[in-house]
Amino acid sequence: MNKMKYKNKRKLCGFMYTIPWIIGFVLFFAVPIFKTIWWSFNSVGVSENGGMSLTWAGFGNYVSLFTEQVASGSRTFLQVFTNENTNLLVNTPIIVIFSLFLAILANVKFKAQGVVRTVFFLPIVLGLKVITDLITITTGGDLVSRGNGLFSQGFAAMMLLRYTSISSDIILTITSYVDNIFQLVSRAGVQTLIYLAGLQSISPSLYEVAKIEGATTYESFWKVTLPLIGNITMFVVVYTIVDYFLGSSIATEVYSFAFTKSRIGIASALSVVYMINVLLVLFLVLLVSKKAVKKDV
Questions:
Q1: Can you say whether the dihedral through the CA atoms of 149, 153, 156, 161 is positive or negative?
Q2: Contacts 24+ apart (CB under 8 A), 125-128
Q3: Secondary structure (DSSP) of 200-250
Q4: Between the ranges 104-118, 164-178, 251-265, where is the mean pLDDT highest?
Q5: Is residue 83 classed as helix, strand or coil in its secondary structure?
Q6: How far, in Å, CA of 270 to CA of 276, rounded?
């Protein structure tokens, strides 16, 4: 009997590793997804004898979603999806780079390293909502709730606008990121942990070899660190995209249409479009990064 090839063994191990997820997906997600897709093609109401009544509507819910229905703030759903995708395109690189920067800082060896890491990752362990509530009940907590505009309306931003030749659009863009620094930090917690685990998995001997060859710390970062965490970066990007969509305003709109306005058909159509949008974004990200990230053979 021929022995199984190493490549096939890896495929089998990968399949065995994903079996619990496959079982969980079939039991808890496949049926709701199928029902949502089915309801999106129907007008859902209440039957005379109780229960749910379905009237075939075809693509009527989808057409109505983008021609008649409006979201919060009197925005069309085309505007909502455009804004969400634009914010995702802008914020995802910032969150990924910022989380890598935090992981590098946390990975530096110094005295009381364990204590600093414990304090640093405490919000991630307890949950950011708990930490935010603790901050907002303190004397300076109003800064968190009034965070928008603290820098853009401050002295530094006014000086940049008045006495520099930098374009106002560039300054306003930078100040908007600084104003939202708390939100960016709140979204970078798990990614920082993932990066920290990846950095600690790199063998110190590689840095020693680079140092012997005369490489500087800067060169070691670009020639050793970044290539070795390429796959981790891809995972962090995907996680950030999914996490961003889970907290988007579209999920709130789905809940509003389904349980507040009792428009289950419209809510289902919005859910399907939302899911397709997420899958398309992930597909494009994977397609673009396919050649950039080194794959294991």
A1: positive
A2: 128/186, 128/189
A3: HTS-HHHHHHHHHTT--HHHHIIIIIHHHTHHHHHHHHHHHHHHHHHTSHH
A4: 251-265
A5: helix
A6: 10
196, 120 Cβ separation under 8 angstroms = no
pLDDT digits (tens, 9 = 90+) for 51-69: 778 888 889 999 998 888 8
Record the pTM.
0.75
Per-residue HEC secondary structure of 75-99 comes to CEHHHHHHHHHHHHHHHHHHHHHHH
Cα dist. 208→150, 211, 214, 216, 227 in Å? 45, 5, 10, 11, 16
CA distance 127 to 131: 7
Per residue in 219-273, pLDDT (tens digit) is: 888 888 888 888 899 899 999 998 888 888 888 888 888 888 888 899 999 999 9
Burial status of residue 156 (CB atoms within 10 A of its CB: 0-12, 13-18, 19 or more):
exposed
Tokens representing residue 17 in the block: 């590793």
Helices (H), 127-166: 128-136, 142-145, 155-163
The residue whose two tokens read 């204590």 is: 115
Closest CA to 176 of 149, 140, 210, 195: 149
d(CA 133, CA 123): 11
Query: Domains in the chain and their CATH numbers?
Result: 77-247 (1.10.3720.10)
236 neighbors 195 (Cβ within 8 angstroms)? yes
User: Residue 6 is which amino acid?
Assistant: Y
Place of tokens 């914010």: 87
